[in-house]
Amino acid sequence: MGSRGHRLREPLRGIHRPARWYERFTDRPFKTAWLVLSCVTLGLTIIGGIAIRIVDPDNIHSIGDGLWWSIQTVTTVGYGDIVPKTTAGRFVGVAVMMTGIAFMTVTTAAVTNLFIEAARKRRAPDTGPSVDDVARLHERIDTLIDEVRALRADRDGKDPPS
Question: CB-based contacts of 30: which residues, under 8 Å, 6+ apart?
Fold first, then answer.
């Protein structure tokens, strides 16, 4: 089969990628969300820097100024040295601001989750009752039920049911 068999199998390699991505997301949702949002934030910061230059050229004099403004805005620093004046520029600003806020929120949640998971792992693992423990409890409950039936039968003057 040689190289032809390899060429036939090659397109099938990516079939399981969505399943692997989903498994990674469910195993480590904060890490995955943080990575995705980091890429989105970086992309929108760059796009926002270029877009602000296009929609507000009177106030943003170069793409470098636009990128500087976008970085300030996404990090919520906002020095105020460069400010969009047009409505379209302000809409770009809102998009960049919201992305920055979302990024910081997810980052804070991810770090908090790491601390919580580390604390949980340090504690003694609570495995819960074993199968034998549950079986012993069932036996004990059955014994108590039989005793209650016997006591009721004695009280009522009847033979206890079997």
Answer: 106, 109, 110, 113, 114
Q: Please give the model's pTM, rounded to 2 decimal places.
A: 0.57
Q: Pseudo-torsion of CA 56, 59, 61, 67, nearest 10°?
A: -70
Residues 6+ apart with CB under 8 A from 78: 72
> Does 138 lie in the same domain as 113?
no
Answer with the residue of higher pLDDT: 78 or 152.
152
pLDDT at 105 over 60: yes
Count of structural domains within the chain: 2
Residue range of the domain that includes 58: 2-125
Polymer length of the chain: 162
Nearest partner of 68 among 46, 87, 89, 86, judged by Cα: 46
Asked if residue 133 and residue 71 are part of one domain, the reply reads no
CATH number, domain with residue 28: 1.10.287.70
- The rounded distance, in Å, linking the Cα atoms of 113 and 116 is 5
Q: Do both 25 and 99 map to the same domain?
A: yes
